[in-house]
Each structure stands twice: as structure tokens, then as C-alpha cells.
Amino acid sequence: MNKEFLVLSLVTASVLNAAGFKINEQSNDGVALASANIAKGFGADVAYYNPANMAFLPNDDKFSFENSFSYIQLNKIKFQSNNNVRFGSKIARVAAPLFHAVSPVFGDNWRFGVSFTAPAGMIIRWQDPLARQTAAKFELKVLELSPSLSYKFNDQFAIGFGLRAVYSKGNVINEGLATNPIPMQYGRDITGDSLDYGYNLALTYRPIEDLSLAIAYRSKVTMTITGNENIRANALGNNMTVYQGGANISAPLPAILDVGLAYTIDNTTLMFDWQKTYWSAWKEMDFNYSGGVNSSYTGAASAIAKKIFSGYDRPRASNWRDTNAFRIGVAHNISQNLRIMAGFAIDEAASMSDKTGFDVPDTKSRIYTTGLNYKFTKDLEVGLSGLYQDRYARSVNGRDELNRFAYGKFERAAAYIINLGVKYQF
Fold first, then answer.
1. How far is CA 102 from CA 9, 45, 311, 391, in A?
2. 85-118 tens-digit pLDDT
3. 3-state SS assignment for residue 412
4. DSSP bridge pairs for 247
């Protein structure tokens, strides 16, 4: 049996889609400012980015809401193998509705907030037989509901804290061909979901009126993804069901630390954020099955079924590294009704070059953003923003103990976000 068949990548690595697929931008302002809006915000989205800043929102006696919609597109990712064969993935498109709300002040300087976001998610599909071994299709949806509270000690200092309820749902298909010891097709289809929990903490300090310093921490969430898996093969003239039953994997959605500052000069606010993502929590991928290989086969068919199952059951090391992102944002009030914004960010790759494959085509990236808000009334505001992500080319030699699944170069690629948002108060 050839090497391509013996070891098969566990595409659920993409559940922790690395720097290139992590979605930081969860509001119209977040898109426009490259998510540099940690130390200061202009609306209800502070409930997500830094709940301590809920304490500093104006209009203590009003509810603040924000609804927005993001269209996300990842362009074709092209790959050139070491023998100069070129192929690419399909264009991926995702739509994400987003929501944030903050209550009026209640009790002794308390405020309540809630956010509904999509912090990760993508679709990637490959047509080339080599790439289809590990990622014929990967579709992931991750939704998060984050209730939070803030408390304002005084005009300079506030804290925030809350819970993370993360729901993930995915469908993964991978397919391959083998010629040794006999010609055969093989593959699997996985569906699963999970509901898991974490927390977030934040604080904001304003030593002077125009300067804000902030720290925000989102905890790791261990996703306990459980579902059904169908492992199949076409060999010896038979359509074989190698395994059909339950499967699960525990995958850490990594913790994130943001340290930000914002400084306002006249009508312009300058923002900076350093973000640390603790991808090193991801050590390996290891599926657990509720049963074993189909025991109804005998002879050569039994040997093939056992080989296929053992290939999928083999743990795969990841050993990702923590990453840094640096984000800069500028917001300028042209008038009382119109604010324009722009941002720039650099985000590192999390995976090592020898463990990067078609399931996680992770690269370093630069991000360029812009947007605007326009107030129609004192309580109604509409925003439009856009983001362009320039994904660097990267040479990789992704491999496991027996085979190199991605040995060559991922070429330069791009991703886009367009967000339309509405803010309102009552």
C-alpha cells in the first residue's frame, strides 16, 4: 500500500484555522479600523472587543444596539508543487450576521452587554487529486454568544468580564487514490458540532481624558466536537464501508490577549493594538471513535479495511506556535455627522512550514481597511467598511512520518470583507 494511502491528514485542523482564517473583524468599526479598536470604541461593539469600555459609552440612560452584515470572500489559493504542477482551490464565500447591544447604566455604575459574532469560519475546496486527499471540502461555521458586564469605578478606571458560548458545526470530505498493492479509491465524510464555553476579562484605564489604555483577554475554549464519520473504499471490486459511526475530537480554540491604546487629538483618534494568539495550545490532532473497523470483511478485504482505518486513526502532530498581530487604526470626525476610518495590520502565520498542508494553507498577511459612519439622527447611524487581506506566498514541505502532502509553494492570495452596519439607540 503506497504512502499516500497509509497516512491521511486529519482535516479538522482547520477547526483552529490559523492566522489567515481567524476572523477578528466583528463589526463595521472593527472592519474599518483593522480591529485596532480595543482601547476605545464608538458603539455597542465594545461589548465584544473590550467590555470594560461599555462603562464609558455616552448616554447612560439609553440602550445601544448595532446590527451589521459581513460578506467574506477568500480568493482562489494557488499551489505550485516541487515538480512545477500548478493548481488552485475554489473561491470561498461566507456571509456573517453580527449583533451587539449594551444596556443603560443600572445599579452602581454597572452595564450589561451581549454580542453575537462569527469569530472563525470558512469554506475551502480543492479539485486536484493531491489536495483532495486532505481537503476535498472543508466547511466550518463558528458562532459565539458573549454576555458581559462592566463596572465603572471612576472616570478613569473600569473593568469588564463575561462568558463565551461557542457553537461550531462542520462538514469535511477528503478523497484519495492508491495504486499499491492494488488500485483503489478511499475517503471519508465527517459531520459534527459542539457547544463549549469560556470567559473574557478586560480593563480600561484613562489617565487623562484623551488617552485610553486597555487589556482584553479571551480565554481558550476547548471544542469537544462530536459527530458521525463514514470511512469508505472501493477496492477488490467492492464498495467497502470501513467504518460508520460516532467520532469526536477535542480541539482548543486558542486564548487571545489584546493590549491597546487610543489617543485623541482634536477630531482624530489614533489607535494601536498588539494581539497575542496562543496557538501553541494546539499540539496534535487525534480522533476518538466509538467503535472499530468493520469486522464483516475477511482475507484481503479485511487487511485493506484495517489499513485504511489505522491511517485515519493515527494522531498527527501540529506543534503550532503563538503569533503576534500589530494593528493600527485612525478615526477622524469630518463633522458631527460623518466619521471616516482607516486601518492597517500585520498578522503572523501560526503553522510551521513542515506541518502546513492543503487543509490549513496558513501564511503571513497584511491587512488594509477603510470605512465610514454617517449619523442621520442623534440616535441612528449607518456604516460601510471594507477590508483587503494580502496573503503572502509561502514555501512549505508539509509532511507526516511517511508522506509529504504539500511540498512546494502556496502563491500569493487575497481575501476581502465588506460590512454594512446600523447603530441605533433608544
1. 43, 8, 50, 35
2. 888 888 888 888 999 999 999 998 999 999 999 8
3. coil
4. 227, 289
Nearest one of 391, 386, 390, 420 to 34, comparing CA atoms: 386
The distance in angstroms from the start CA to the end CA of the chain is 68
Residue 405: predicted pLDDT: 58
Residue 175: what residue type?
Answer: E
Q: Look at residue 259 and give its three-state secondary structure.
A: strand
What cell does 261 get? 491604546
Q: In angstroms, what is the C-alpha Rg of the chain? A: 24
Cα distance between residue 417 and residue 177, in whole Å: 36
C-alpha grid cell, residue 74: 477568500
Mean pLDDT over the full length of the chain: 85
Which of 346, 330, 225 is CA-nearest to residue 274? 346
Distances (CA, A) of 200 to 50, 76, 269, 349: 9, 35, 26, 24
> Would you state the cell numbers that stand for residue 106, as one nine-digit string?
443600572
Which residue do the cell numbers 461599555 mark?
A: 54
All three cell numbers of 187, joined, read 475517503
| Angle (CA) 287 317 137, round 5° | 60
The pLDDT tens digits of the residues spanning 275-292 come to: 999 988 877 777 788 888
Enter the C-alpha cell of residue 234. Answer: 472501493
- Over residues 251-270, mean pLDDT: 93
What confidence tier does 16 reach under pLDDT thresholds 50, 70, 90?
very low
> Is residue 244 scored above 70 in pLDDT?
yes
Q: Report pTM.
A: 0.86
**Assign residue 20 a region: left if phi > 0, alpha if psi is -120 to 50, beta otherwise?**
alpha
Who has greater pLDDT, 311 or 67? 67
pLDDT in tens, 54-76: 999 998 899 999 999 999 888 88
Question: Is there a contact between 422 and 79 (Cβ–Cβ < 8 Å)?
Answer: no
Beta partners for 328?
A: 272, 344
Q: Which amino acid type is present at position 49?
A: Y
Cell of 302: 479485511
